[in-house]
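Running this now, will post back.
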Amino acid sequence: MRYNLRATDSLPLYVKKVRDDLLEQARALSRPRAFFVSRAIIRGHTRGRGEIIDHHRWKPSLLTVQYQGLTHRYHELHNVPEPFASQFRNLLDHEGIQYVGLVGYVGRHGRLPGLDWAMVVAFIGIAGAGGLSNTLFSNHARDKGWGMGARVGAIPSAIGGRTIGLSHTGCVFPLNEENLSRWRRWMRHIRRDQAIWVLASILGMALPCMMSLEFIRNATVTGDRVAAMTAEGIALRYPSFGGLFWVLTLSCGFLVLAPGQVSVCDQIARRWTDMIWTASPRSSGWGKGRFATFTMGSCLLMESGGCSSSDSYPRSRSPRLAPCWATWRWGFLRCRRST
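Update: finished.
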């Protein structure tokens, strides 16, 4: 049974008493640069308290082991007998969080961890989005007329501009030595671009994770507040420049996310229309000049649907929709190609 501890009026009396006791203990133990951990074990309990040095190094001052009705107190970790010493070391090294493997957790508790498994599976399913985004860069090269893109047409502007047709199929250059030499030079550019993209992607994903671990490690994050909490953690760590760092951190997040949303809107519309244009036999009778209208119509339809559902669907659950769309899109493409 789960209870909302903030809703005092709806709590049973025994739950309210437990909450009040825990709050009283927390107020008594709470002080700057100090820690307290407590963990239940089979037929006993372990507790530890001490000092936090340099924001992350936990130095214990008192370690208590209650086991089989007996209580033992230690002031140094090396004096604690096994297996309790390993348990304390795990908690101290990971700042109060016990690291355990999935098999070990299931073996101890008889169930999987209480995670949002729908969200975990969603992130696994969307892991290939970066590779799929490369198709957009290929389309950009095609629309610019680079390489063989000049032979297959491009997506024209929906309003004004020239009428440009886009072929339903690709175009292969004649296989002779001169063209193959140009192709090899082109591939060198592609490999160099991919190497830079891989390194920059890893760095871009690692930096927010490292900043969160450094400034809000083990903090409880509610909803989509992780960016704001990271900014607050940086500001509290460096109070002399707190206001500046808070603004810079949130501004950096906005500059990353805002253009990304515009790009994602364009990417999804282009991917869908490209796949339908290439894979659907019915689209072959539409004519080459209708591709721009089809693309812009898909984009406007997606934007209107997103705006109408943004107020009714929680933002924290929106990542679950992405793998569903991606899976459906790939399934559509594979089915159309097979037929």
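The mean pLDDT is 75. More later if anyone needs it.
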